[in-house]
Design brief:
The strands form 2 sheets. The chain has a 4-stranded antiparallel β-sheet with strand order 3-4-6-5, with helices on one face. By secondary structure, the chain is an alpha+beta fold. A hairpin with a 2-residue loop joins strand 3 and strand 4. Helix 2 packs across helix 4, helix 6 (127-150) runs parallel beside helix 9 (208-222) and helix 7 (161-174) packs across helix 9 (208-222). The longest helix has 24 residues, at 127-150. The chain has 2 domains: 6-96, Arc Repressor Mutant, subunit A, CATH 1.10.10; 110-250, Muramoyl-pentapeptide Carboxypeptidase, domain 2. The protein has helices at 10-23, 26-39, 48-56, 59-71, 110-123, 127-150, 161-174, 198-203, 208-222, and strands at residues 75-80, 91-96, 179-184, 187-192, 235-238, 247-250.
């Protein structure tokens, strides 16, 4: 049976990466909204210098974001003649493309959309089956994350459980969880101060199993805990999505 992960569908992965690259940055989001506003009603759009003044960034930074949006097809580029008929290279003018000039709302972030679809798909399964599937998806991704952390030179079992848990927390933080490890009595916990799943997890709490699976998958690779991390129990101790004050995964 083929593996069901992102590497088996490069086209899907490329599409998700492209949308996230376009709108994941708040500055780029503001620039798009400004360009769309200036393009409304047949407007001439914006130049990098206009964006720099409006948004408060350097012109080179503005140009970088505008070019990224243009590369993704969200803005169209044309040449604007120099003011006053002066000689010199014409500046670029960016206008919102037909597909994005008039939508009622800003396009939904790709990760929010995918998570919402994942949550709705899991809701169609029996609860136990949905949770098991979500955790296994997280474990697969966790093992892939750990492989990138360790490389071939670091073998499982060459670090303590505590240091492995810290490495897992750091990896989660790099993925938007704002996580840290802490010890309590004889157990270790990973506290997540920010969940990138956001409101989607509140609507579909089964997605929290993905988080637990990621911890299990990484732990299995970073510590001698069995190939799938089953050597140590990994449990969801608390979850904001289920009404708790913070998210915690216990090892």
């Amino acid at each position: 049976m083929p593996k069901r992960d992102g590497s088996s569908n490069p086209g899907f992965t490329a599409t998700v990466s492209a949308i996230t690259d376009a709108f994941g940055d708040p500055t780029r989001r503001s620039i798009f909204l400004y360009a769309r506003e200036c393009s409304a009603g047949g407007g001439d759009g914006v130049t990098a210098s206009m964006v720099a003044e409006e948004i408060g960034v350097h012109a080179n930074v503005a140009r970088h974001h505008l070019d990224k949006l243009a590369a993704g097809g969200y803005l169209e580029v044309s040449s604007a003649k120099a003011a006053g008929g002066r000689a010199g290279r014409p500046s670029k003018r960016y206008t919102a493309s037909d597909d994005t000039a008039h939508p009622g709302d800003f396009p939904m972030r790709s990760d929010d959309l995918l998570l919402a679809l994942l949550g709705r798909a899991l809701d169609r399964l029996p609860p136990d089956e949905a949770e098991a599937m979500a955790e296994e998806v997280g474990a697969e991704y966790g093992r892939a994350m750990a492989a990138g952390l360790t490389g071939d030179a670091v073998a499982a079992g060459q670090r303590s459980l505590r240091s492995a848990v810290r490495a897992v927390a750091s990896a989660l933080t790099a993925h938007g969880f704002a996580a840290h490890a802490e010890g309590r009595n004889d157990s270790l916990r990973i506290i997540n101060e920010h969940c990138p799943f956001g409101d989607v997890a509140t609507d579909h709490p089964v997605i929290c199993a993905v988080d637990r699976g990621m911890v299990r998958g990484m732990l299995g690779a970073l510590y001698d805990a069995g190939a799938d991390g089953s050597g140590h129990a990994v449990t969801t101790e608390s979850s904001v999505a289920r009404g708790d004050t913070y998210c915690a995964t216990a090892v």
